[in-house]
Amino acid sequence: MTFDIDHKAADGAGTILLLGAGRMGGAMLRGWLAQGVPASAISVADPSPAPDLVELAARTGVRLNPADGAPVDTAPVDTLVVAVKPQMVESAAAGVQAVLAPHTLVLSIMAGKTLADLRRLFPAAGSVVRAMPNLPAAVGRGATVAVAEAGCPAERRERAASLLTAVGSLEWLADEALVDAATALSGSGPAYVFYLVECLTRAGVEVGLPADVSERLARATVEGAGALMGATGQPAAELRAGVTSPGGTTAAGLSKLMADDHLQSLLNATLRAAAQRAAELGGTGPKA
Ligand SMILES: NC(=O)C1=CN([C@@H]2O[C@H](COP(=O)(O)OP(=O)(O)OC[C@H]3O[C@@H](n4cnc5c(N)ncnc54)[C@H](OP(=O)(O)O)[C@@H]3O)[C@@H](O)[C@H]2O)C=CC1
Ligand SMILES: O=C(O)[C@@H]1CCC=N1
């Protein structure tokens, strides 16, 4: 069975096959639909789709696993978006070679997998673009970096850009070596912020707050601080100064948080470890 993609219905957006529709792939899919990419132009291959994805496909007409659950298609697609785990891609790629044609753009969001890896995995594709979004893409607030293979035509870069900016901001990088570093900062970064909320919650309990109150306050504080930073565009250090009354409570708190650059050293080590892991996931990568 083939996907039988309706090229006319794509209406300029081109046909898209999304390989892997978990957290990130699913978030991007929702962004494309919200931006008006026709559902009839999109096929999704995912062996065990979540119930909300099944419901979305039924409601919108996005084609989900039409080949009896196998991620196989025989019709070439304009864009193949690769959103499986890097550890899965060797086997996943084998199932989609038939969709590749000289006009096909492969757009990968996998951590660690390099342009050279993508070229090896998808040899018949016309161009490859390597991107790194982040999970706030689920609410249209993703921060993405991308790098294109040398010689990638402007039209395909623009196609990649339109799919990536459907879920947030995009920065093209000239140097692929920076992608692992960006992965460590913005790709993984939301998890560091969520962990900060967890730690603040526990610290609030430590100073006497009931756990539920502490959690609500910690969440609202991080949400509000992020919104303020976004709304004002002011440098973080200036915003911090605005909270810190001389001789007040914040100065007392920061005297612990900033002592001996502990937090800075910890974050340096955190990003180094994440970037190192991204590098390990490249090539044929580790199995787990
Ligand atoms: N999560 C994040 O914040 C970010 C993730 N990324 C990248 O996005 C990619 C996906 O991550 P994430 O969404 O978190 O992972 P998920 O596990 O949520 O999504 C991956 C999806 O791919 C499916 N899958 C597995 N094998 C195949 C296959 N052969 N063909 C098609 N689909 C398959 C999985 O199914 P099953 O669950 O059954 O295995 C799952 O639904 C990764 O490469 C990651 O590096 C990039 C930026 C941020
Ligand atoms: O943890 C990971 O490997 C992926 C890539 C960036 C965020 N999540």
TrEMBL record:
Q: Which reaction is catalysed here?
A: L-proline + NADP(+) = (S)-1-pyrroline-5-carboxylate + NADPH + 2 H(+); L-proline + NAD(+) = (S)-1-pyrroline-5-carboxylate + NADH + 2 H(+)
Q: Which GO terms describe its molecular function?
A: pyrroline-5-carboxylate reductase activity
Q: Does the keyword Nucleus apply?
A: no
Stored Pfam families: F420_oxidored, P5CR_dimer
Q: In which pathway does it act?
A: Amino-acid biosynthesis; L-proline biosynthesis; L-proline from L-glutamate 5-semialdehyde: step 1/1
Which cellular compartments is it found in? Answer: Cytoplasm
Q: Which keywords has UniProt assigned to this entry?
A: Amino-acid biosynthesis, Cytoplasm, NADP, Oxidoreductase, Proline biosynthesis
Q: Which organism is it from?
A: Azospirillum brasilense
Give all residue intervals belonging to the Pyrroline-5-carboxylate reductase catalytic N-terminal domain: 16-112
Where do transmembrane segments lie in this chain?
A: none
Role summary: Catalyzes the reduction of 1-pyrroline-5-carboxylate (PCA) to L-proline.
* First and last residue of the signal peptide: none
What InterPro entries does the database record attribute to this sequence? 6-PGluconate_DH-like_C_sf, NAD(P)-bd_dom_sf, P5C_Rdtase_cat_N, P5CR_dimer, Pyrroline-COOH_reductase
In this chain the Pyrroline-5-carboxylate reductase dimerisation domain maps to: 176-281
User: What's the protein called, per UniProt?
Assistant: Pyrroline-5-carboxylate reductase
Concerning its family, UniProt says: Belongs to the pyrroline-5-carboxylate reductase family.
Q: What is its EC number?
A: 1.5.1.2
